[in-house]
Design a protein that fits this description.
alpha/beta
């Protein structure tokens, strides 16, 4: 764990995001796969988060991504769950299926297994989107064990939310 990914650092990030979201009348939604709800937990650890946090969706399976986030089966078949295409459909689906105004979506391979030569353990895609805007997706390659990969994913997702809530 690094200082930027420590629990106090994540709490500070989340508090800042919450304050900006409240001031700018945003409601947030998270669409999470590899983090299993950790981003939503970090945000809702902030007292008063119900004023700016709509919901969190944890969608691990292909079926859940399709049903809850409107990810197309063809996207999953052609590109896989851990891809730019899938995370963009996840973040767009999260906004389309909720009343939120800002969304973050994550999908990745936290390990210790599941990696391939083309998508090794630590490969994570994160996307952010404001309602009415275009999604921004970025690939990350995190080092460490399962917890380290997930913790770094949470930190990166929150950093991206910072820019969307102002």
């Amino acid at each position: 764990m690094t200082p930027e990914t420590s629990d106090p650092a994540l709490q500070t990030l989340a508090a800042g995001i919450g304050e900006a979201a409240r001031l700018n009348h945003h409601m947030l939604v998270t669409a999470e796969s590899c983090t299993g709800g950790w981003i939503a937990k970090t945000l809702t650890d902030i007292a008063g988060s119900s004023a700016w946090f709509e919901c969190g969706i944890v969608a691990y399976s292909y079926e859940a991504k399709q049903a809850l986030l409107s990810v197309r089966p063809q996207t999953l078949e052609q590109f896989g769950a851990v891809s730019r295409e899938t995370v963009i459909e996840m973040v767009s689906g999260a906004l389309a299926n909720t009343g939120a105004t800002v969304a973050v979506a994550v999908t990745g391979i936290a390990g210790p297994g599941g990696g391939t030569e083309g998508k090794p353990v630590g490969t994570v895609w994160i996307a952010w989107k404001r309602r009415g805007g275009y999604p921004h997706a970025e690939a990350f390659h995190f080092d460490g064990d399962r917890e380290a990969v997930r913790r770094q994913t949470v930190a990166a997702a929150l950093h991206g939310l910072q820019t969307l809530t102002v």
